[in-house]
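Deliverable D5.2: sample structural annotation.
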Amino acid sequence: MQINNFITQIEQPDIGDVIGRVGGNIPKILEINNKELINMRFYATFQDPENNEKYISIFVPNDYNTMIEKNIYPNCSVRIFLHDKSEESQKEDLTIQTINKSINDIWISGGKKRHFWIYHTN
C-alpha cells in the first residue's frame, strides 16, 4: 500500500487566486447595494461555475427566525447577487461575526486545477 505524504503551506493568498470564500466582509463591489441588504448578513461568495468572469454572493437574514420561516422558494429570505470579481470590503456591518472566514483557493498541478480551503480565525 502506497502512502502519500502531503505538505501544506498556509499563507495569505493573492486575490487573483481566490475563487470563493465563506464568511468575512462583503465584496467591495456590493457596498453600493446597501439598501437591498438591510437586515441581511453576508454568508459566502464564489466563482460562477458557468462564467469564470462573474461571482455569486449569498446573503442571509440577520434574524434567525426570519430565515427559518422563509426558507422555501418563492418565499425565501436568502438573497443572491451576481457580480464581477471584487476584493473584500473593509466594512464589517454586514459580517456574520460567528463565522470564521474560509477561502477557497486553487493551484495547478499536472495541468489540472485543484481546489483547497484555507481556514482563518477572525
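Annotation notes: DSSP finds one helix and eight strands in the chain. The longest helix spans residues 64-69.
The annotation will be released with the project's public dataset once the embargo ends.
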